[in-house]
Write the structure tokens for this entry.
Amino acid sequence: MIPYGRQTIEEDDIEEVVKVLKSDFLTTGPKVAEFERAVAEYVGAKYAVAISNDTAALHAACHAAGIGPGDEVITTPITFAASANCVLYCGGTPVFADIDPQTYNIDPEDIRRKITDKTKAIIPVHLAGQPCDMDAIHAIAKEHHLIVIEDAAHALGSEYKGRRIGSMSDMTTFSFHPVKPITTGEGGMIVTDSEELYRKLVLFRSHGITRDPDLMTRNEGPWFYQQLDLGYNYRMTDIQCALGCSQMRKLDRFLARRREITKRYDEAFADCANIMTPYQLPETNSGWHLYIIQVKNHDRKTVFEQLRENGIAVNVHYIPVYYHPYYQEHGYREVHCPVAEEVYSHIISLPVYPGLTDEQQDTVIETVKRLTK
Ligand SMILES: *Cc1c(COP(=O)(O)O)cnc(C)c1O
């Protein structure tokens, strides 16, 4: 099977992990800070907080943003459930705005329509690595005093108007799951320019506990620590962060290969009437985490099944979040985002990852063309 996404782990990645295993610190050691610095510097943010995964990152970000019962947070239905679940974790209410029919990203015009006096934040998701229309989103946020938390699980290294994703909003979160732009097995990161948010995030990641005498209400001695907030154990290990540091050094190479693969797909499908290739917003440079096509004049399910039968492990990104039974049973039965539902019924994600060979890609292209003639 050719998977839709796969990690690239090389000998030097393995060596970096083994070094940590032989060192004094398996967790809360120097590799965590090194990985945080590497990501912060790369994306152009002041602070970075390594955290156990992007789901935890989104939870921490919503908590730091002060989301609570009665607050509404606007996000897209075409995303992984975690982008909305994080609002529920904090007792808030996710509100779904429809997507743009070309980019499949959240539509700023529909964000405007969904704003109420309860709206507190927006969580845009850069689907497939394609940056959202951030100028429009920031304009809305400024006008309505909303916090912006970018879910950039797909978008490490993606650029919007010459700036990297992670340098623009109150907080931006990343995932290092194996199919994402770089991997640490499981892992996540939140970046921010705000010292206040940074402090809250660091506390939340580790039980709400601090050893910093400046933050404590009193200090009984060198053993002393205090719990100031209700946090979790959402820490990342040094083992994971060593892999992260090593992967960061390869990110530009990985992105270059993803962009090369995308270009080959675009060219190969240019003359296929039944395949709609992905659109790229002007002045953006996607990292192409996913290559999502729309299948026209054919049944998506049939094409999907035939691709799998032909050894190509395609996928669908995503099922609208409010379709899930949990959401249906918790107040979302009447929710409809017509563009998202229409797009969902046609999409298929084709394989794209740095290790995909030209020969494998040719097999995918030839098979997709044959099945959608
Ligand atoms: C993968 C993903 C997540 C969750 O990331 P984890 O690190 O697996 O918790 C959240 N949002 C989006 C859009 C994702 O693709």
